[in-house]
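chain below, 69 aa
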Amino acid sequence: MATSPKNEPDKPGSKLIGCAVLASIAVGVIATIGGVAAMANANDYTGGGILMFAAACSFGLLANALLRR
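prediction:
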């Protein structure tokens, strides 16, 4: 069983939350790279805008979850 620095057992679901955070960061970074590439190379502003919107949603939801009290 994994333990925290205080030698207490981890909360149930903490690994799942960690996976969700990593996935959110990955989606945001990949969508940002894809959006910039779409706008720069192909002048595809619609596709780039959709990818930037996906990145903003991903980072926004992550910030909301991490900064919630």
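The chain has one domain: 17-67. The longest helix spans residues 14-41.
thats it, cya
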